[in-house]
Amino acid sequence: MTIVKKIRRRIVLLILAYIKYMPFSTTMKLRNSCYKYVLKGMGKDCNICDGVTIIHPENLTLGERVSIHEYCLIGATGEITIGDYVAVASHCILVSEDHIFLDKTKYIKEQGIKPKSININSDVWLGSRVTVLGNTQIGKGSVIGAGSVVTKDIPEYSVAVGNPCRVVKKR
């Protein structure tokens, strides 16, 4: 990365930190313009609402017309790809990492973390407070019910709910 891009990236991250909790209407365009410079990829007409936290934005790719609503946490240590026309409701959590804890002679925090990937295909709706864990894929056209915890792949056009998340019907 060139020095100019590094400087621009730091300035944009500072602006994002400052405007993170400003109300929806006053900063939406500024926030979305800034994210274009720090995300791995961002399609057109995306909306990232106030209070969203993105860790390692350089590993997050958004398709077109993605909306991420208030107070979501996206931990993109591993690659996270979100397809076109995806709605992520408020308070959702996407975590693309896992702690390593195999060695009992070491503290878990000393063993590091392992990046994992998350792939959310197009036309998906994540209800409020959904948690998506790493090494998962959510199929095209699926709906994940509020409060669900996605630990395994969800097939296309499924309605899935619960902890752990299970398919209850097809759309």
Task: Provide the residue-averaged pLDDT.
Answer: 93
- Give the N-terminus to C-terminus distance in angstroms: 44 Å
Please count the beta strands (DSSP E, at least 2 residues each): 19
Tell me the number of helical segments per DSSP (H or I, 4 or more residues long).
2
Q: The biggest beta sheet, please?
A: 7 strands, mixed
What is the chain-wise order of helices and strands? Answer: HHEEEEEEEEEEEEEEEEEEE
The general outline is globular
Contiguous low-pLDDT stretches (5 residues minimum) are none
> From the structure provided, what is the oligomeric state, counting identical versus distinct chains?
single chain
Give a description of the structure.
It is a single chain. The protein is an alpha/beta fold and 171 residues long. Helices cover 19% and strands 31% of the residues. The chain contains two helices and 19 strands. It has a seven-stranded mixed β-sheet with strand order 2-5-8-13-16-18-19. A five-stranded parallel β-sheet has the order 1-4-7-12-15, with helices on one face. It is globular, with a radius of gyration of 17 Å. The N and C termini lie far apart (44 Å). 26% of the residues are buried. The model has no long low-confidence stretch (mean pLDDT 93).
